[in-house]
Design brief:
About 85% of the residues lie in helices and about 0% in strands. By secondary structure, the protein is mainly α. It has one domain. Helix 1 packs across helix 4, helix 2 packs antiparallel against helix 3 and helix 3 packs across helix 4. The protein starts with a helix and ends with a helix.
């Protein structure tokens, strides 16, 4: 249990760090914009990791890259809609931002945690 909590916290902090950097590169600068990115990740990242862990424990669906990518696509879509809703910015820009943030954090997670 402690290992799971430690991994989850490390994954969340890595995700937040990377996604805030990407948000800055996309021109998000205000405290509201950056806190929005942080808070959205506080919601989506633990939920994603929990679903992957529960699936692995109960063997509900074959734990494949396809499953992980499907869950990541769901996260991109949820984060995109939340970004548009909270920040009231262009839907295209927020979709691209969500995609790039999540791609970068996913790839960093692969490099660090595997």
């Amino acid at each position: 249990m402690i290992d799971y909590l430690k991994f989850s916290l490390e994954a969340l902090l890595l995700t937040i760090a990377i996604e805030v950097i990407v948000a800055l590169l996309f021109g998000l600068r205000s405290k509201q914009e950056l806190w929005t990115v942080v808070l959205i990740n506080v919601i989506t990242n633990p939920l994603l990791n929990y679903l992957i862990t529960v699936n692995g424990y109960f063997h509900l669906i074959s734990q494949t890259t396809i499953l992980i990518l499907c869950l990541e696509v769901a996260v991109v879509l949820v984060e995109w809609r939340l970004l548009v809703w909270v920040l009231r910015q262009s839907t295209k820009k927020m979709l691209l931002l969500s995609f790039v943030m999540n791609t970068c954090s996913y790839l960093a997670g692969l490099l660090i945690f595997r």
